[in-house]
Design goal:
- Belongs to the binding-protein-dependent transport system permease family. CysTW subfamily.
- This is Spermidine/putrescine ABC transporter permease.
- InterPro entries: MetI-like, MetI-like_sf.
- This protein has 307 residues and is mostly helical.
- 69% of the residues lie in helices and 1% in strands.
- The chain has a two-stranded antiparallel ribbon.
């Protein structure tokens, strides 16, 4: 039986691929990494700068315009009347102090609740329990904001489960008002406080805790002298979320706040029913100035690096 002749592969010439526009563009991008990076960042930067920042700046510029009292149209004449009204008006001062008080109360409650939970997740729980607790903390975020707010409205009502539980003890539900607002906002923003503190506590070396115990440090001494100083930037990072989100919220106040108002409600009212966008923009400047002041205050703590 004869063997078939072998083909000489050296004589086979593979034709080059056709030089299509897509192939030429691919070849160009493969040799120009900066162009490739610029094209990748164009869409997200356009969204961030044009759609978000520029739109917000344009809205805030309207704070220096005014509304014609006769026609109701916005007049683009530069004036400080809205700023002066917001700064000197007794109503706006009262609502600003109320909003600031609610934001501080919510932040303190959330930190007090988040610290032991985050410490248990980071330093005590087994890896399996850690995963379970992380999912448990994230689970409320998967539900609608309105569903959670209306759930608390049901809980805090006179016919709700809280009244049913407290009545045998001679106590009663706080009903709708500032207390209900603080409770609901504390519940809504708690996951945003737990997660940064948990991430910060995970970075605390276990060897430091063991060294403290070896030197005779009790539990509270170790927590106060070792854990809290190292976790302080993470705690401040968590407070940024609860504080800033509480300053701008208005939906929860509408649902469980009763007759109380916060800055967000004033913005919503002036944009909608009052049709006074310049005054609404001037009111919106208040929480923005407060949160920028807070960020400047905590910048040296390293909290911004933990976000």
């Amino acid at each position: 039986m004869s063997t078939p002749p072998l083909t000489d592969t050296r004589s086979i010439r593979v034709p080059p691929p056709p030089a299509t526009p897509a192939r030429r563009a691919s070849a160009f991008l493969s040799t120009h990494p900066r162009t490739r990076l610029a094209l990748l960042l164009t869409a997200p930067l356009f969204w961030l700068v044009v759609v978000y920042i520029v739109a917000l700046v344009l809205l805030l510029i309207t704070a220096f315009w005014r509304v014609d009292s006769f026609t109701g149209e916005i007049v683009t004449d530069w004036t400080l009347d809205n700023i002066i009204t917001v700064v000197t008006g007794a109503l706006y001062q009262t609502v600003t102090l109320r909003t600031l008080g609610v934001a501080i109360a919510v932040t303190i409650i959330d930190v007090a609740l988040a610290l032991p939970i985050a410490f248990y997740m980071a330093k005590v729980a087994s890896p399996r329990m850690q995963r379970f607790l992380v999912i448990a903390v994230l689970m409320p975020l998967w539900a609608s904001y309105l569903v959670k707010a209306y759930a608390w409205r049901s809980v805090l009502s006179q016919e709700g489960i809280l009244e049913w539980m407290l009545a045998p003890l001679g106590l009663h539900t706080p009903g709708y008002g500032l207390t209900a607002t603080i409770i609901t906002l504390s519940y809504l923003w708690l996951p945003y406080v737990i997660l940064p503190i948990y991430a910060g506590l995970e970075r605390v070396p276990d060897s430091l805790l063991e060294a403290s115990a070896d030197l005779g440090g009790k539990t509270w001494r170790t927590v106060g002298s070792v854990v809290l100083p190292l976790a302080f930037p993470a705690i401040i990072a968590g407070t940024i979320f609860s504080f800033s989100l509480s300053l701008g919220d208005y939906i929860t106040v509408n649902i469980v706040g009763g007759a109380n108002q916060m800055l967000g409600n004033l913005v919503y009212t002036n944009v909608g029913a009052a049709n006074n966008l310049p005054l609404a923009a001037a009111i919106a400047l208040i929480p923005i100035v407060i949160i920028f002041g807070y960020l400047a205050l905590v910048r040296r703590t390293g909290a911004l690096n933990n976000l």
